[in-house]
Amino acid sequence: MNIAEKLTRLIGAWGLGVVRSMGHMFIFLSRTIYYTFAPPVKFSLILKQVRFIGSKSMVVILLTGAFAGMVLALQLYYTLRKFGSEALLSPAIALSLIRELGPVLAALMITGRAGSAIAAEIGIKRITEQIDALVSMALNPFRYLIVPNFVASLIVFPLLAAIFDVIGIFGGYIVAVKLLGLSSGTYFSQIDVFVTMTDIRIGFYKSISFGMIVSWVCCYKGFYSGYGAEGVSKVTTQAVVLSSVLILVWDYFLGSVLL
Amino acid sequence: MIEIRGLKKSFGKQQVLRGINLEVGTGELLAVIGMSGGGKSVLLKHLIGLLKPDSGEIFISGQDIVNMTHDQLDEIRSMVGVLFQGGALFDSMNVFENVSFPLKEKTRMNKEEINSRTYAALEDVGLSGMGHKYPAEISGGMRKRVGLARALISEPSIVLFDEPTTGLDPITLNSIHRLIKSTQKKHGFTGVIISHEIPEIFDIADRIAVIYQGAIVQSDTPDAIRNSTDPIVQQFISGGQTGPIKTIS
After folding, report:
1. A46, B129, B135, B198 — which has fewest CB within 10 A?
2. Dihedrals φ, ψ of A38, to 5°?
3. Is the CB of residue A38 less than 8 Å away from at least one CB of chain B?
């Protein structure tokens, strides 16, 4: 076998592996969606995960939201000043946050805090045979482990993105009004003029789809975790990296369609 | 009750089960012994449909479970209790919640009924008053006993034990064995125990099956296994370093 043939075989095997794992992931997603709508729904487990993913991510969202808004105000002010358009600072901050940065940064923060924990927790349940125990009791692990995280993410991601946006706008307000001397009235009135319901809807669609991506990837990686501590740590890293990459890729495609 | 015919299973290029043939009668307690990595746990996982064989048949109560749908398999699983190697207790639940979980999720019993059965099950395994503890707060032996209580609470007709005493001290080991035997007498279930505990396992099992390199070498009463002339069985139960079983040099 010559080098070209070997290389072709290697690329072919890699390509087949990628297609196979993508198919596996989509089957996992379709099962998750099916069990989301097939009763009985475990409301208590969903609420528990809303608390875990949502309220426990609040501090990190508040901090990153405030500083994202402040940085935006600072950078955009110096750019807009060159064109004499300082009055447009607040809509620029608000639109950047609502349409783009809020959903994306909030999703990345939640992935780092809760997504990794979800992958690790489900991975540990796999290696300690807790998932096998559920199956052996004729109970569906999707209902107990996957669907609660999936539904909770769909609820929590848009809410946290909205909080991120609001805090970011107020962070921008502190820099723009208190430090750079813009008028407080101008700041809020310009937001009111330029930000429309369409912008808010775009941010909402993005964050809800990010919620789906993060819960899907993290649950999938954990559910098919390898053995031992090394296996769990490997899938946790993979879950965070893949979720983060998919968030940015999907953000671009969704942005192109919704723009 | 359980019948296995020609069961084969490979993982990649490694053939783990090479045609297992085994029968377990109703109310019988069968122990499967053999070398580590010999396919014992893989065999057990096939009995509850956690793994699908490459070929072969598994009959439970006369029904072939290999080609069953999920729903049909769940009906079979409802008849089976499993004690996993590490207990497989749900770490987010306390002992009481772990034991009562199958009743809460699988039956329409009211709270009082579930509570009284759970307290009784905990008493059976000597863990009264421990219900509030979490799995991380109790010892390995206690975890196995909680796992046993959980496996038995639905009163299954078949109970599978995956190395129920591995890693335990001799006293706890014997108490778990006695507990398995006494609960089996009390509930009358059919049991399959995967074990490495020789000679202790001979005292509780009705029959012993010796597995080697993915096949059953001999399946007989404990006395017949003790007096077996098969060199593999003899070497395994005596722990001999010379014989057909390759040892670490």
Report:
1. B129
2. -85, 120
3. no
pTM of the model: 0.88
Query: B101 — contact with chain A (CB < 8 Å)?
Result: yes
Q: How far is CA A83 from the centre of its chain?
A: 35
Cβ-Cβ contacts under 8 Å for B84 (sequence gap 6 or more): A129, A132, A133, B147, B162
Q: For A133, which of B49, B73, B84 is closest by C-beta distance?
A: B84
pLDDT in tens, A47-68: 999 999 998 899 999 999 999 9
Band (B201; pLDDT cuts 50, 70, 90): confident
Spatial distance between the Cα atoms of B94 and A87, rounded to a whole number of angstroms: 59
Q: Give me the residue from B50, B78, B84 closest to A138, CB to CB.
A: B78
3-class DSSP state of B23? strand
Q: How many CB atoms lie within 10 A of CB A43?
A: 10
Q: Which of residues 152-181 of A touch B (CB under 8 A)?
A: none
What's the CA gap between A242 and B6, in Å, rounded? 42
Query: B134: how many CB neighbours lie within 10 A of its CB?
Result: 15
Of B174, B219, B224, B228, nearest to B192 by C-alpha is: B219
Q: pLDDT band at B199, cuts 50/70/90? A: confident
